[in-house]
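I hope you will forgive my troubling you with a question about protein structure. The matter concerns a single protein, recorded as an amino acid sequence and a row of C-alpha coordinates. Please examine both parts with care and let me know of anything in them that strikes you as inconsistent. Here, with my thanks, is the record as I have it:
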Amino acid sequence: QVQLVESGGGLVQPGGSLRLSCAASGMIFSLYAMGWYRQAPGKQRELVATITRGGSTNYADSVKGRFTISRDNAKKTMYLQMNSLKPEDTAVYYCNVDRLSAWGQGTQVTVSS
Protein backbone atom coordinates (compact mmCIF):
# COMPACT_ATOMS: atom_id res chain seq x y z
CA GLN A 1 0.00 0.00 0.00
CA VAL A 2 1.41 3.32 -1.10
CA GLN A 3 1.74 5.93 1.62
CA LEU A 4 2.86 9.52 1.14
CA VAL A 5 3.50 11.71 4.18
CA GLU A 6 4.14 15.42 3.83
CA SER A 7 5.85 17.55 6.45
CA GLY A 8 7.51 20.93 6.83
CA GLY A 9 4.58 23.28 6.49
CA GLY A 10 3.93 26.17 8.83
CA LEU A 11 3.49 29.90 9.24
CA VAL A 12 6.08 32.14 7.60
CA GLN A 13 6.35 35.84 6.88
CA PRO A 14 6.33 37.16 3.31
CA GLY A 15 9.77 36.79 1.80
CA GLY A 16 10.57 33.82 3.99
CA SER A 17 11.40 30.23 3.14
CA LEU A 18 10.11 26.76 3.91
CA ARG A 19 11.18 23.29 2.87
CA LEU A 20 8.50 20.65 2.42
CA SER A 21 9.23 16.94 2.47
CA CYS A 22 7.25 13.99 1.15
CA ALA A 23 8.27 10.60 2.51
CA ALA A 24 7.07 7.63 0.46
CA SER A 25 6.59 3.98 1.36
CA GLY A 26 4.98 0.95 -0.25
CA MET A 27 6.36 1.75 -3.70
CA ILE A 28 9.59 1.52 -5.66
CA PHE A 29 10.28 5.23 -5.29
CA SER A 30 12.88 5.59 -8.02
CA LEU A 31 10.52 4.30 -10.73
CA TYR A 32 7.97 7.09 -10.57
CA ALA A 33 7.63 10.71 -11.51
CA MET A 34 6.21 12.75 -8.66
CA GLY A 35 4.69 16.13 -8.08
CA TRP A 36 3.60 18.81 -5.65
CA TYR A 37 0.13 20.33 -5.84
CA ARG A 38 -1.55 22.96 -3.71
CA GLN A 39 -5.08 24.02 -2.90
CA ALA A 40 -5.98 27.41 -1.50
CA PRO A 41 -9.31 28.03 0.25
CA GLY A 42 -12.13 28.28 -2.27
CA LYS A 43 -9.88 27.36 -5.19
CA GLN A 44 -9.19 24.26 -7.22
CA ARG A 45 -6.14 22.14 -6.60
CA GLU A 46 -3.32 23.24 -8.89
CA LEU A 47 -0.01 21.81 -10.01
CA VAL A 48 3.06 23.43 -8.45
CA ALA A 49 5.97 21.34 -9.72
CA THR A 50 6.87 17.90 -11.06
CA ILE A 51 10.01 15.82 -11.17
CA THR A 52 10.65 12.81 -13.40
CA ARG A 53 12.46 9.60 -12.51
CA GLY A 54 15.59 11.07 -14.01
CA GLY A 55 15.30 14.37 -12.18
CA SER A 56 13.90 16.61 -14.90
CA THR A 57 11.70 19.30 -13.42
CA ASN A 58 8.76 21.45 -14.42
CA TYR A 59 7.16 24.38 -12.59
CA ALA A 60 4.01 26.42 -12.62
CA ASP A 61 4.71 29.93 -13.90
CA SER A 62 3.65 31.38 -10.55
CA VAL A 63 6.51 29.66 -8.69
CA LYS A 64 9.31 29.62 -11.28
CA GLY A 65 12.52 31.03 -9.90
CA ARG A 66 11.27 30.78 -6.30
CA PHE A 67 10.55 27.07 -5.74
CA THR A 68 12.82 24.10 -6.33
CA ILE A 69 11.63 20.49 -6.47
CA SER A 70 14.09 17.68 -5.81
CA ARG A 71 14.21 14.03 -4.82
CA ASP A 72 16.46 11.68 -2.91
CA ASN A 73 15.81 8.16 -4.16
CA ALA A 74 17.93 6.59 -1.42
CA LYS A 75 15.77 8.24 1.23
CA LYS A 76 12.54 7.77 -0.74
CA THR A 77 11.80 11.41 -0.18
CA MET A 78 10.79 14.32 -2.39
CA TYR A 79 11.33 17.95 -1.42
CA LEU A 80 10.00 21.37 -2.28
CA GLN A 81 12.24 24.28 -1.34
CA MET A 82 10.14 27.43 -1.29
CA ASN A 83 11.87 30.81 -1.20
CA SER A 84 10.59 34.37 -1.45
CA LEU A 85 7.19 33.24 -0.27
CA LYS A 86 4.17 35.41 -0.97
CA PRO A 87 0.75 35.54 0.71
CA GLU A 88 -0.73 34.01 -2.44
CA ASP A 89 1.35 30.89 -1.82
CA THR A 90 -0.86 30.15 1.19
CA ALA A 91 -2.45 26.74 0.63
CA VAL A 92 -2.45 23.11 1.62
CA TYR A 93 0.40 21.42 -0.25
CA TYR A 94 0.02 17.83 -1.42
CA CYS A 95 2.45 15.22 -2.62
CA ASN A 96 1.34 13.13 -5.62
CA VAL A 97 2.32 10.07 -7.61
CA ASP A 98 0.09 10.33 -10.65
CA ARG A 99 0.65 6.84 -12.06
CA LEU A 100 -0.36 5.30 -8.73
CA SER A 101 -3.23 7.73 -8.10
CA ALA A 102 -1.63 8.36 -4.72
CA TRP A 103 -1.93 11.50 -2.60
CA GLY A 104 -0.57 12.53 0.75
CA GLN A 105 -2.69 14.07 3.48
CA GLY A 106 -1.33 17.56 2.85
CA THR A 107 0.61 20.11 4.86
CA GLN A 108 -0.57 23.66 5.51
CA VAL A 109 1.58 26.57 4.38
CA THR A 110 0.52 30.02 5.55
CA VAL A 111 2.36 33.15 4.42
CA SER A 112 1.35 36.13 6.51
CA SER A 113 2.81 39.01 8.47
